Amino acid sequence: MTVALRGLSAAPELAIRAGETVLIIGRPGTGKTTLAGRLLESAGSAIVYETKGDPLEQSSWEAAGFHRVNHPDDLRLHARAMLTVPATWLEDRKRWADPGHPWSAALDHPFRRRPTARGRHSTAPWSSSSTAASARAWE
Fold first, then answer.
1. Distance CA 114, CA 110 (A)
2. pLDDT above 70 for 120
3. Which terminus of the chain faces fewer neighbouring Cβ atoms within 10 Å, N or C?
């Protein structure tokens, strides 16, 4: 899939091949959610890690066809999933190396993810707030 990002201040064209994993990270307020939303509009399979606990942002992702899940094991159930990440997972850095820690499992999931059911999904306007997002394109 090739995505032309028109309307953004720097409008690059990105090519994401089937099966590639994309991670978007950056400082707060730098447009990660906006970029992720544009990239994921046509992705049949994607995961969003919502780390801020922002109900408005979570609602935007749900309006765009993402299913809210609260545990990494549930990511496999939905082609388009939004994992709500509790702050405690992020604060316990010493246990991140433990494969049984939920944050470790969440980060490992995209690399083990298999194609899931595809379907049509809606899109929603994207806020300019930030979210770490990971997507795996299967198109």
1. 8
2. no
3. C
